[in-house]
Specification:
- By secondary structure, the protein is α/β, with parallel strands linked by helices.
- It folds into two domains: 172 residues, VC0802-like (2-Layer Sandwich), CATH 3.30.2130; 163 residues, Vaccinia Virus protein VP39 (Rossmann fold), CATH 3.40.50.
- The chain is built from ten helices and 14 strands.
- It has a seven-stranded mixed beta sheet with strand order 10-9-8-11-12-14-13, with helices on both faces. A four-stranded mixed beta sheet has the order 4-7-6-5.
- Strand 11, helix 9 and strand 12 form a beta-alpha-beta unit.
- It starts with a strand and ends in a 6-residue tail after the last strand.
- The structure holds S-adenosylmethionine.
- S-adenosylmethionine binds next to helix 7.
Length: 358
């Protein structure tokens, strides 16, 4: 039995995260409230979530990761925090009919003010893991296919406890994508596209791109996104009036065209169109839909730069537009969006109209 949902978001996006979970929960007849700390990077949504709401948590755009809270402990004694936690976990697992969890994480908020808690949680995970293994509640080796135990420390004396579902888990705990900046990539935004592939196509995304041979990058300069496509062996049309990185051009896999990304079109069908143009988000979303609908490309990955105000409302309008077109014209389409760890005032969208065969 759960009495709330913990959601992680980018610090500063707590309002959007809350508005979205309120709306999603209400669609399943589930109501609740929250009073989030601004810039904390998390929201505790007070509610009794139905299974449907828990199932829909991965769909949330502004929540990078989320799980249902099964217990809360406050006033932990610093001389022995472990005993009450282990006892509570044993009770939760028994109630849920779970014999063992496959992993455990000690989590914390990303906001600046939570730095000391982050250090504490980073160390505390080791004794927790040992104690759970001794009690037989944790598998000897990590098992990603089993539920994982999640412990969120607001500070070192308060913990929220939950057990997640393997199929609802974010690609990285707390949605914090730990990616190494690839040597040779021309800009840091290369990590945005790498994270997007991993989140939307799954950890085996490189295998999935093996059959993709051509790509278009709209708003490509200096080439961080183009670099990712080139690195997967694609030939890329890079569209931007700005300059492209010289080393990237020397690969001979890039055709740089100084043109307007809203006008330029390829001569033939390409596998991917990616777009990072700084433009009105509705205009970009419409362009991407048309690219796929008119069969210029098979798949689209694009960034929508959101305005400071009404960020959630703006995404809602765009989503409604895309969903209504999809419902009329491509009912099998896949549309997914996420506020990625490497996104700032923007979200990333993946669209596949699944229309290549008719
Ligand atoms: C955020 S930067 C792209 C960074 C790039 N994704 C990377 O990883 O290096 C946005 C780019 O969009 C380009 N841009 C904006 N409007 C454009 C348009 N209408 N047509 C083509 N490029 C455009 C800008 O010149 C700028 O280089």
């Amino acid at each position: 039995m759960s009495d709330g949902i913990l959601l992680y978001c980018r610090p500063g996006f707590e309002k959007e995260c809350l508005a979205e979970v309120v709306e999603t929960a209400a669609e399943s007849g589930c109501f609740g409230w929250a009073n989030p700390d601004m810039n904390s990077g998390f929201v505790v949504f007070e509610t009794t979530p139905t299974p449907k709401v828990i199932e829909r948590l991965p769909e949330l755009v502004f929540a990078r990761d989320a799980w249902a809270i099964s217990a809360r402990l406050a006033d932990l004694d610093e001389r022995d925090r472990l005993t009450p936690i282990i006892e509570t976990v044993a009770r939760i697992l028994k109630d849920a009919g779970i014999r063992q969890v496959g992993d455990v994480s000690c989590e914390y908020a990303e906001g600046e003010q939570y730095r000391p808690t982050a250090r504490f949680a980073g160390k505390f995970v080791h004794p927790v893991r040992q104690a759970l293994r001794r009690s037989g509640s944790l598998t000897p080796k990590t098992r990603p296919d089993l539920p994982a135990l999640r412990l969120f420390f607001k500070d070192s004396s308060q913990v929220l406890i939950g057990v997640d579902r393997p199929d609802g888990r974010a690609a990285w705990p707390m949605g914090i994508a730990r990616l190494k900046f690839p040597a040779g990539a021309p800009s840091r935004s290369t990590l945005k596209l790498e994270e997007a592939f991993s989140v939307f196509l799954g950890p085996q995304w490189r295998d999935r791109l093996q059959n993709s041979h051509t790509g278009v990058d709209l708003g490509a300069s200096p080439g961080g996104w183009t670099w990712q496509l080139v690195n997967q062996g694609m030939h890329v049309y890079a569209i931007d009036n700005g300059p492209m990185d010289e080393t990237l051009m020397a690969t001979t896999q890039v055709d740089h065209q100084q043109a307007d990304g809203f006008i330029w079109k390829p001569d033939r069908y390409v596998d991917w169109v990616v777009c990072d143009m700084v433009e009105k988000p509705a205009r970009v979303a419409f362009l991407m839909y048309e690219w796929l609908h008119e069969r210029h490309a098979r798949y689209a990955m694009f960034n929508l730069k959101l305005p400071m105000r009404k960020r959630f409302a703006q995404w809602q309008e765009i989503r409604e537009f895309l969903e209504s077109r999809i419902a009329q014209e491509h009912p099998k389409a896949e549309l997914r969006a996420k506020h990625l760890y490497h996104d700032r005032e923007e979200i990333t969208v993946y669209l596949d109209l699944k229309n290549q065969n008719g």
